[in-house]
Amino acid sequence: MLINYIQAAMRQARYEILQDDGTYYGEIPGFDGVYANASTLEACREELAEVLEEWILFRVSRNLPLPLVEGIADLAGTYLFEKIGDAVAAEEPVWDGDKWRVTVTLPYLSKKLGKLTFAADGRLVPSESDTPAFLEERANAD
Question: Who's near 16: CB < 8 A, 6+ residues apart?
């Protein structure tokens, strides 16, 4: 189970080549403090996986929550289906510093209706999300 979680988190990793020294930098959105820097991409990936594993073990030892690594789109889709129906859809989630932002659309009209915000652990953040009534009203507006 732990290896599956690590592999899912590593699939979300983002890498870049640093301009100042040409080394590789990697991080995983939603995993604050999990980053690596190395001279090759492969070395960066290996270091990032090691840092991630230590970070997970630390959080588990302190009974701290772990971020949701996959499934925000599924959570958003389920929420929308239950609250509004199947005419609306959730676009691909975007990591925004400490939360997932999901744009809600009416696909057959290419119309954006609003947004949902989820915490790193997958909880809906109501204060930063449009209500089902608002989304439904926007879906029915001309």
Answer: 24, 25, 26
Range of the domain at 30: 2-61
Lookup result for tokens 């403090």 = 33
Phi, psi of 38 (to 5 degrees): -155, 170
d(CA 104, CA 115): 5
Cα separation, 100 vs 29, whole angstroms? 10
Q: What is the largest CA-CA distance in the chain?
A: 55
105-123 tens-digit pLDDT: 988 888 899 999 988 777 8
What CATH number is associated with residue 45?
Answer: 3.30.160.250
> Computed from CA positions of residues 41, 2, 54, 29, in that sequence, does the dihedral angle turn out positive or negative?
positive
Q: Is the pTM of this model over 0.85?
A: no
Give the pLDDT confidence of 80-111 residue by residue, as tens digits: 888 887 778 888 888 787 788 899 998 888 88
